[in-house]
Amino acid sequence: MQYETKKRSILKAFSWRTWATITTAIIVFIFTGEFALAITVGFIEVFAKMALYFFHERLWQKVNFGKKEIPSFVLWFTGLPASGKKALADAVHRQLIADKLKVERLDSLDVRPLFPETGFSLEEVNRHVKRAGHLCAMLEKNGIIVVASFVSPYRQSRKFARDRAVNFVEVYMNTTVEACEQRDTKGHYAKARCGEYQNFPGVDVEYEKPVKPEITIEVDKVTIDDAAQQIIYYLRKNFINER
Amino acid sequence: MQYETKKRSILKAFSWRTWATITTAIIVFIFTGEFALAITVGFIEVFAKMALYFFHERLWQKVNFGKKEIPSFVLWFTGLPASGKKALADAVHRQLIADKLKVERLDSLDVRPLFPETGFSLEEVNRHVKRAGHLCAMLEKNGIIVVASFVSPYRQSRKFARDRAVNFVEVYMNTTVEACEQRDTKGHYAKARCGEYQNFPGVDVEYEKPVKPEITIEVDKVTIDDAAQQIIYYLRKNFINER
To answer: Which ipTM value was assigned to this complex?
Structure first.
């Protein structure tokens, strides 16, 4: 909830007056040729107009015309474990922050530790993803852009997240289990292969590919920077128009 | 994410120019006594300054000085079933909306139907309340005021909600089980008494009273309007200062 302080209005009055009085004095001088008169009019004007400007600003604080909200959206990254969701989502998030937008970043790795009782069965993953989707939608509804990255292997809960949002942009990390396994520096796939993890998407359970994602990233063919630019281009075109 | 359109800046330029040019013309007339000159200077000024004003406004859009956010907070209503949480929270919510603040309203009755699998065991209620607390904190962090009403009978999960928020205002609905049972038009207590509901706070399980709530409402002694005013007074004093 943003508002503008009285100090800002005062500073604007000074800033405006500097430019405007110089202009007035020049106009008066051009028409009368009298330098002293031009300065006197300018001098009087400084005080009268500065007070007037301040009240003009305060009045306009109450006028809502022409104050707009940038439409927010939920940018949802889905893909196999170690498909590069987090790194790409972080890159896009940084860019949106640099654009001075209000953005919240949600990653499965931040949410799960808060609720350690959440397991990895199909039912529990669906619940986890649905709750995350609900959270995203609430933030979006309140004007916050959300960058979310969850493996979210099941269509059912992804659809839930999509249905609750107004603008849902699904980013599918298109790659293969083999490529992810090679990329996996944390050894998650190895643990899944030897049975230490159960219900691991790509190993024990199927990762259900999105049918119509808004954006598909060909993970093994593009750099992170290019992929981030592809996404930013889409967002600029569809949501973040020129202000 | 709010911004101001070019149309707004143009309208402000017209509005400002009307007042300012009249002032300039008067000043010139006072000093020269020449009516025609006063009008001419004013006329020229209209065009030169309107363009200048527009660019001045656009420049100031980029200056953040003096743009402030009203601090947000989580207003959390807790109390026995049928203690009047929802009605009071709704009244406070309406008042905050009337004050043109950005507010989100969360009620257990809105959240539970989305996740029908959530039960009423101690563990499930704690989980439910913790998730709600997490959601509140995320909204608060992003500048949204949250008005939440949950029975939230257990200290453990209320503490979780409190710890995640920056400004947590706990409103305790102080009343007795008997009074709630009389007020209960939906027959929830009756169902709990005959065993249709289990783990019902006040009947099967203890409602754990808050130790140090920020606000205590003496439900059976005050009207809803008075209670709402008591809360609004607290919020105005602590968060919503003069803008």
So the answer is: 0.79
